[in-house]
């Protein structure tokens, strides 16, 4: 894989990932209102495991890779928009 | 005193569980449970939140061997846990992963290095009238309601399911995507092992790829225990699975279309289970065979007007069901619909009355109503809440609700309004809420 995994590449991808989250979950907010480093669970967006499966599905379709619980730290990947975008930048095949 | 063995359907050297590093035999489980029992602190109740199904099993069996009752709350919200500890003050929480127990003393799952499987010579017997577990539902007043499960009934429960599925003498390896603590997972991935003889996979696969890996880690024939939501997600992912002999679904209605496409794709029959935490599983059907449900052995339904009660068999006490039902003879029935107040999302059940009580209890809230919008066809329908709370903002209200509710019931969206469309008797007709929803939510998208 030859994709650029720099912090700039992650920042560049974040608006698109934010858009996917808002659309997949039908959230009551604009994509740009998701703060890059705020938690997606708990006191942040309050996502739950059902939401994670929905988001994981659109991510696997859009970026061409499957998420696995045992290969990566699931909690860390979904800890924030930036962490999720970084994981996608590193794993994407399309 | 009538007794039943801790494990009725397996011998000491039969496999009871599959772990990533290999099988565990019944004697391994019993030795681990003995070892854990000696390490548990004093106390009559065990809140067993182990995520690993084998560790849950060790904890559950250790509790049975040492006189502790397994507490299994419907929700792990701080509010619910604080209620539980009020009622069961000598509670200890057994965990195998980070868990906020809300003031309940916790014990991390310990090393069981002194367990000696060779020293296990028999399967212990437990009195049928022993209180073994308490499962909770969220009561409509805000207090969790306890449903007591005695050992003899749990034994009958697992055996009845095994007979229904045709697993007696024909054991399957069980892979479950559902938690073992909740009613459905407790029965179909745990009791079905102890009293049906089919060993379980210790993990709880999450992503579609995890489900495929878990199935690949156990021998054929395989049973996948899951939900309509997970099945839809699995189908949409497009990934392949190792051969599956049967798929079980429960917690929400499974559409015939989804059942049909799952059967075609994976080449296995899809059976649905119907039940409730109060009474356990009651009936099953193969969804593609039609609408009719068949009662499990020993269970009876009785009707009085619109009300239906379940009793006998493994049902502890007669339970009034929250569904409208049409009986067809003595052991078959049709589900006509759910009573309007009940909400069932992702296998977690509550009532609008309970949700309204919780939001109404937030200081500053003058009036509020939860609303379950009509099904949207794709994804999962989420609740909406209309709240009258001058001076409070949405973020504050959501933060308060997060303390009180399971995340699945958090409103999405929460809409602040000046007043609710109550009629002259103070009631909120569903029609009025539908109109408000169309006005405030649908039109903005």
Could you provide a short overview of the structure?
The complex is a heterodimer of chains A (94) and B (445). Chain A is mainly α. Chain A contains four helices and no strands.
Set out the fold topology.
The complex is a heterodimer of chains A (94) and B (445).
Chain A lengths: L6 H19 L23 H15 L10 H4 L3 H11 L3
Chain B lengths: L2 E3 L9 E5 L2 E4 H14 L5 E4 L4 H13 L3 E4 L5 H10 L3 E5 L10 E3 L16 E3 L3 E8 L5 E7 H15 L7 E4 L6 H12 L5 E2 L6 H9 L5 E5 L1 H10 L8 E4 L6 H11 L3 E7 L3 E7 L6 E3 L4 E5 L2 E5 L7 E2 L2 E6 L3 E7 L3 E4 L2 E4 H9 L6 E5 L12 E5 L5 H11 L9 E3 L13 H11 L5
Parallel strand pairs in B: 2-12, 4-5, 4-6, 5-9, 6-7, 11-13, 13-14, 14-15, 26-27
Antiparallel strand pairs in B: 1-8, 2-3, 9-10, 15-16, 16-17, 17-22, 18-19, 19-20, 21-22, 23-24, 25-26
List keywords for this structure.
heterodimer, A: mainly alpha, Non-ribosomal Peptide Synthetase Peptidyl Carrier Protein, Chain A, 4 helices, 52% helix, B: 445 residues, alpha/beta, Rossmann fold, GMP Synthetase, Chain A, domain 3, 8-stranded mixed sheet, 27 strands
């Amino acid at each position: 894989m030859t994709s650029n995994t720099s912090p700039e590449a992650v920042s560049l991808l974040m608006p698109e990932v934010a858009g996917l989250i808002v659309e997949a979950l039908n959230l009551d907010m604009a994509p740009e209102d998701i703060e890059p480093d705020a938690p997606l669970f708990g006191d942040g967006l309050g996502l739950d495991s059902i939401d994670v499966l929905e988001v994981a599905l659109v991510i696997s379709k859009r970026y061409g890779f499957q998420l696995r619980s045992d290969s990566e730290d699931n909690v860390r990947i979904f800890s924030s928009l930036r962490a999720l975008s970084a994981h996608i930048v590193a794993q994407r095949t399309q | 005193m009538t007794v039943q063995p801790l494990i009725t359907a397996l011998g000491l050297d039969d496999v009871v569980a599959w772990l990533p590093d290999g099988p565990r035999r019944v004697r391994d489980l019993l030795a681990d449970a003995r070892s854990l029992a000696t390490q548990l602190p004093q106390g009559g109740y065990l809140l067993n939140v182990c995520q690993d199904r084998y560790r849950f099993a060790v904890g559950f069996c250790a509790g049975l061997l040492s006189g502790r009752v397994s507490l299994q709350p419907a929700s792990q919200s701080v509010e619910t846990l604080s209620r539980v500890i009020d009622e069961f003050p000598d509670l200890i929480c057994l965990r195998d992963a980070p868990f906020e127990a809300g003031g309940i003393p916790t014990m991390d799952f310990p090393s069981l290095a002194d367990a000696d499987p060779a020293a296990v010579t028999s399967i212990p017997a437990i009195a049928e009238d022993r209180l073994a577990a308490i499962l909770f539902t969220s009561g409509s007043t805000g207090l969790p309601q306890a449903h007591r499960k005695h050992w003899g009934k749990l034994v009958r429960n697992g055996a009845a399911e095994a007979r229904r599925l045709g697993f007696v003498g024909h054991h399957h390896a069980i892979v479950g995507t559902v938690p073992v603590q909740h009613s459905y997972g407790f029965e179909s991935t745990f009791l079905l092992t102890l009293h049906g003889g089919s060993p379980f996979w210790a993990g709880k696969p999450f992503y579609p790829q995890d489900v495929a890996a878990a199935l690949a880690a156990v021998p054929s024939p395989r049973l996948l225990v899951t939900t309509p939501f997970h099945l839809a997600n699995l189908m949409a992912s497009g990934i392949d699975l190792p051969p599956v002999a049967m798929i079980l679904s429960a917690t929400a209605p499974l559409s015939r279309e989804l059942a049909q496409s799952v059967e075609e794709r994976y080449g296995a029959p899809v059976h649905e289970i119907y039940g409730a935490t109060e009474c356990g599983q009651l009936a099953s059907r193969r969804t593609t065979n039609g609408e009719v449900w068949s009662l499990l052995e020993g269970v009876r339904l009785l009707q009085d007007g619109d009300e239906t009660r379940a009793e006998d068999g493994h049902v502890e006490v007669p339970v009034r069901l929250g569904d409208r039902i049409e009986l067809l003879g003595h052991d078959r029935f049709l589900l006509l619909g759910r009573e309007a107040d009940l909400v069932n999302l992702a296998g977690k059940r509550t009532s609008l009355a309970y949700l309204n009580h919780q939001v109404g209890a937030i200081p500053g809230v003058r009036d509020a109503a939860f609303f379950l919008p009509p099904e949207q066809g794709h994804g999962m329908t989420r609740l909406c809440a209309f709240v009258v709370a001058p001076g409070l903002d949405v973020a504050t209200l959501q933060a308060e609700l997060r303390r009180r509710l399971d995340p699945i019931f958090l409103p999405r969206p929460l809409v602040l309004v000046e007043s609710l469309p109550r009629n002259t008797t103070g009631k909120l007709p569903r029609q009025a809420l539908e109109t408000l929803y169309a006005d405030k939510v649908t039109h903005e998208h």
